[in-house]
Design brief:
mainly beta; Immunoglobulin-like; 4 domains; 16-stranded mixed β-sheet; six-stranded antiparallel β-sheet; 6 helices; about 10% helix
């Protein structure tokens, strides 16, 4: 099963502070403890000299959907040995050639980070079966595999249920992206772990991304994971370029993947590109999917008693990105931010005081998943950027709806339960929370775009029919759904759903046209009182929300607001006119 909301983060606070911009890439390759399963305020922190992009003596943050990186798109198996009593360090993480490598025999657990390779035969499993694509409004058309990148692989171990780890792959489709090419990188990763007492590996992490790319030739080299002895005298792992006369400009060239002679550079999707990805995955991949897409059509079918075919088709999303800067002199005016900096960024007050007095600038990226506290601290300073940021990705979590083990059993624990996707810059990865009959999903974002227009939210939910019916105690009769958005001040307004439909064992709905900054999307399913156990008579049941909207006028002194909704209410402090 997948661990809920698991994300590997760089242990940024343990890094030495860099003094030059070009130190950033080397810092990213510092030795890290990959068993540190944490969510940090910043996925990367760097101290640097001032430049046009980095103002002097300042601190900054922002959000932008992250890309893959060459170092984090490699297959590797590592062991773990806990820290010995009385010693200082972080425990050992030796690099293992295989699940049975004698070098890792005394490890208390093994962790495998695997990149999913393409399928090369009908009998292959744990592989990418196909990529299809089109511009929205047209049926998707099958693409073809150009090649799997040449980076290190890891062997399968059938006895313990560990699949083979491969490399990212490049595919060609009929759809041209904004970079002027029809090449796309597919990066699918899975994490597996096994304690010494276990005989079988468990799946705990899964993600899939499709990137429009261009291929740049040059003296580029692949990265490799290698074992080092760290500052504590422990075996650990790091990454490095491998080869002769390697160009060390992969960071400057924005390579998201590399191999000998090739840098894979990201581009932007053509607006509203429709993408379909088909994966053969073992049925240990369970729980909830969440990600960046809209108008989702998902299907999971059994290939055999151990593997499923997962097909996800959806339209790409254009996401917001934003940055915030404040000088160290002005930062104390932002109480929440300054308290966080002074108490969490530095191990000692002396180190904090030294940083305050230094001319250096500090920058860190805000993690999109779960960083609601950090967003609240930076929101007054964040300024949206006027640029495209088209993405298509999803990941998995078993952070299932609370208090529903019975429904998980009834719908099948060896199944994908559902998928939630949104264009919100900050979102609550994993499953919606089941509260008072509502499926709640927390979001956060800026109210306006760079041009001053409203930033309009989107939210899609796909849920397995058997799970939803069990959760609500419903029969097999058709369902209806309402969607509302609850603002941070407690006011609630209904949102139009373009379609609510049930097909092939899945219920899907779409919520549109809501605004930010920290709303909660709320979904409630219902059945008519006359519903019986007789199921739908057709393969597809559509139940559009047809309730008529009403417009009311609300006043607060000289301020006037018009609220349109199915059941409109005036915001806090306003009175209905």
């Amino acid at each position: 099963m997948f661990l809920g909301d698991v994300f590997y983060a760089l242990i940024a606070l343990s890094y030495p502070r860099a003094s030059k911009l070009n130190d950033m890439n080397s810092m990213k390759r510092q030795t890290i403890s990959i068993f540190a399963i944490v969510i940090l305020t910043f996925s990367f922190i760097n101290q640097t000299q001032a430049s046009d992009e980095y103002p002097p003596a300042s601190v900054g943050s922002g959000f932008s959907e992250p890309y893959s990186t060459p170092e984090w798109s490699l297959s590797a198996i590592r062991g773990y040995k806990p820290l010995a009593p009385g010693k200082i360090g972080q425990g050992e993480h030796p690099l293992c050639a295989s699940a049975k490598d004698a070098h890792c025999a005394d490890s208390t657990s093994l962790l495998a980070d695997l990149v999913v390779p393409p399928c090369y035969s009908p009998t292959d499993r744990f592989c990418i079966e196909g990529l299809e694509m089109s511009i929205e409004g047209s049926p998707v058309v099958a693409g073809s595999l150009l090649r799997e990148l040449k980076t290190a692989s890891t062997p399968a171990d059938a006895a313990s249920g560990l699949p083979k780890g491969g490399s990212a792959s490049i595919w060609t489709t009929p759809t041209i992206h904004q970079g002027g090419s029809n090449n796309y990188a597919v990066v699918v990763t899975g994490g597996y772990s096994k304690s010494k007492e276990q005989s079988q590996f468990d799946a705990f992490r899964f993600s899939a991304s499709v990137y429009p790319v261009t291929l740049k030739s040059g003296t580029y080299c692949p990265y490799e994971i290698y074992e080092v002895i760290d500052q504590f005298g422990e075996a650990n792992t790091s990454s490095r370029l491998v080869g002769n006369n390697c160009s060390n400009t992969t960071f400057a060239d924005k390579c998201i993947l590399t191999e000998t002679g090739t840098c894979v550079v990201p581009a932007e999707f053509a607006p509203n590109t429709r993408v379909s990805l088909s994966l053969r995955m073992d049925n240990k991949v369970t729980g909830w999917l969440f990600g960046r897409m809209k108008d989702v059509d998902m299907k999971s079918t059994a290939l055999d008693n151990k593997n499923n075919l997962l097909r996800v088709e959806a339209t790409s999303l254009n996401l917001m990105s934003a940055k915030a800067w404040v000088t160290k002199k002005e930062a104390p005016n932002y109480k929440l931010l300054w308290e966080d900096i002074s108490t969490k960024w530095f191990l000692t007050k002396a180190a904090f005081d030294e940083w305050v007095a230094s001319p250096y600038t500090q920058w860190g990226d805000m993690i999109p998943v779960g960083s609601f506290k950090q967003f609240a601290m930076w929101e007054p300073l964040l300024k949206p950027e006027a640029k495209d940021n088209w993405r298509w990705n999803f990941a998995a979590s078993n952070n299932n709806i609370a208090n529903s083990p019975k429904c998980l059993d009834e719908s099948g624990r060896a199944n994908i339960v559902g998928l939630v996707t949104t264009n919100a810059p900050i979102y609550d990865g994993g499953a919606p929370r089941f509260n008072d009959g509502f499926l709640d999903y927390k979001l956060a974002g800026l109210h306006n775009k760079a041009d001053g227009s409203l930033f309009i939210g989107s939210y899609d939910l796909v849920i397995r029919s058997t799970f939803a019916r069990c959760l609500y105690g419903f029969t097999s009769a058709p369902l209806q759904a309402t969607v509302s958005v609850m603002s941070a001040d407690g006011t609630t307004s209904n949102v139009a759903t373009e379609v609510v439909q049930e097909r092939d064992g899945w219920i899907s709905l779409e919520a549109r046209n809501f605004t930010f900054s920290t709303p909660t999307a709320r979904v409630k399913f219902s059945q008519t009182a006359t519903a019986t156990n007789k199921g739908p008579t057709s393969n597809e049941v559509k139940n559009p929300v047809t309730a008529k909207k009403i417009t009311i006028t609300c006043t607060k002194g000289k301020l006037i607001k018009k609220i349109s909704a199915v059941n409109p209410k005036c915001p806090a402090g306003y009175k209905k006119k």
